[in-house]
Each structure stands twice: as structure tokens, then as C-alpha cells.
Amino acid sequence: MDQPTADTTSDRHHDSHAHHAKKASRKRWLIWLILIVIILLIGFAFFHPTKHSHKTNNLAGNVQPVAVTTAHIDDMPVVLQLLGTVVPITNVTITPRVNGHILDVYYQEGQYVHKGDLLELIDPRPYEATLAQYRGTLAADRAQLEKARVDNARYQRLIRQNSTSAMTARDQEFTVQQLEGTVQFDEANVRNAELNVMYCHILAPVDGRVGIRALDKGNYVTAGQSGGLAILTQMQPISVIFTLPQNQIGTVADQLREAGALTVDAWNSDNTQKIASGTVKALDSQIDTATGTVRLRGIFSNEDLHLFPNEFVNAHLLVKTLHNVLILPGEALQTGPEGPFVYRVEPDMTVKDIAVKVGNTDTQNAVILSGIKAGDRVVTDGVSHLRPGQKVSIPNDKHS
What we know:
This protein is an alpha+beta fold. It is built from 4 helices and 23 strands. The longest helix is centred in the first third of the chain and has 60 residues, at about 1-60. One of its GO terms (cellular component) is efflux pump complex.
């Protein structure tokens, strides 16, 4: 009995020792794990700022060449670019006013003619014969009227002497009045016949260019004939009709009222070349409800005849000029999530992004209302790789 008891006690002691050893081993592994995590955290904290610092040093060390401009104070014209069409001030369809054959044509197609020039001649002989007939009738009736007046004067003397009846004298007065009416009728016939003879001579009503004629010599024409004989277009001066959006009417109307006239330039259809300069003096009387625009007419002297009827042009309307404003070229403006900004070159030759407020603009420049001041240097070229704080160089820079 004693021996088994001793063995059992020994086994229990051995198991207890093994349990304690295993527990101690777990503690050691846990301590090592904690130490490893701490080392990793220290390493991350040590190397991360070094990497960030290296990136910052690279940004500052990487010098980007750029082109710059200097913000300056100047005058800025406010110009509206509008679509327009060249429209003649006078465009006349030459239409016959009498019937007859065309005897002759006195112009070449496309010729520039002057007011009063003879263009075509319609056979006047029938109208000249009618005129002669009416003049003969007028002469005969005037003679009868003169005789009737002499007789009437004689009857008036006789009636005062009681040598004729009052009725006879009165009848003679009526004869005079009747013949006076006849003479007036004859005179009207003569004037009408004279007009018909004059209408046989087709004259240019204005200075201008004659287009392609519809009928040649020998054709028979009728008064008011559809299509006419040719079209005469006034070329000097000439006008451009262009449309103005209704939200800009107030500004333009104010300037017209103040200045009396505005300057307008006509540019070609692709807006690359100026053709002519003119003036605008008035707006149309109403807005086109279909387009929400109002028409304006610009008048151009067209001395070189470069403006041609129905030609499409771009109208540059000078509304006003802003004086003493801060100006930058348009290429200096950048667009970001919060609006327009510029890269300003700092004294240490780094760039800083500056938000700006932009006013009026044109095809080249912009008015800067706030954000920078006159004398600030702003990047215009080489911005694609720029970041705030970036070092830059300016080739041929006198300030460097």
C-alpha cells in the first residue's frame, strides 16, 4: 500500500512542474511579440517622416522653367462679339413702268453706276406720238377757251348796256368754265404722256452695282413686270445687321444714349481678319420673341468694297472702355475646384496658387478684380507640372 502512494505523489508533482513551465513559455512568447510590434511601430514612425521629408525636398529641389507676365494697370475695351449679315441700305429691283420693246441696254453686268445714269431704253415712239396728240388737243382747246373768254367779256359789256339778255351772258360764262375744265384735262393728259416718254428711259435711282440682267435688248416688257430687268445694289455706304441678346440691351442702350454712336468692326466669317469699321447709332424698336434678341444696324463706308451683300460677318461692338484696371493675359488664368486662380511667383522663386476674381474678358486679356496686385508676376506657360511650393526658374529673367 505505501509504495503506490509514493508513486502517485511523484506523478502529481511532475505534472505541476510541466504546467508551470508551459505557462512561463507562453509569457515569454507574448513578451517577444509585444517587443516586435513596438519595434515595427518605431521603425514606421522613423522611416515615414523621412520619406515625406524626402518628397518635400524633391518638390523644392525640382526646378520647373516657366514663362511669366506682370500684372499691370491699363485700359480695357469692353467688346461684344455678335453675328451679323451685310445688308444693303438700298437694294432696288429695276422694273419697267411702261410697256414696250427694249431698244438698248447701256450698262455691263456688274458695273458700278451713278444715280441718274441711263440703264435701258424702252421704245418711246408710241408714247411720243401720244404726247404729240395730247399737245395738239391741248392747243386747240386753249384757243377755244381764249375765244370764249373774249366773247364772255363782250357779253358782260352788252348786258351793262342792256343790249343782250342776262341768260345769254350767263350761258357764255358757263362755256368759259367748261372749256377751262377741258384745258385742265388736256394738260393732265400731256403730263401723263410726258411721264410715259420719261419712263421709257430707265435711269439708275441710286449709286450702286448692277447685277445680272434678266432680259436683253429686243425683249418686250410690261409695266410692273415680275422679276424686273435687273437689281441695283447700293454698295457705299452699306450696313451690317446683327443681333444683340436681350440681357445686354440695357448696357448698350445706356452707352448709345450717352455717346450717340458706338464703334463696330466687321470681321470675316472665321473671325481671323478685320474687314471694315463703322458705327451703330440705334437699336431696333422691339425684341424678337422667337430668339430673345434685338437687331442693330451698323453703317460702314465700305470704301474698298470688301463688304458684300448677304455676306456673313462677325461684328465686334465696342460698348465702352474700362479705365485704370488690373489686367492679365487670359493664359495666366487657371481653373480649379473653387474657381479661377493664378500661380504667383514668390520672392524665393516658388509658386503660390492665388484665387482671383475675374471681371470683363476679351480674346486676349482679363480684368482682375481681386486676389493679386499690380507688379505681381504670374505664370503664363509651364503650369502643367506646377504645384504650390514648386521651385521655378524664369529664362532670361532680369529679376533673378
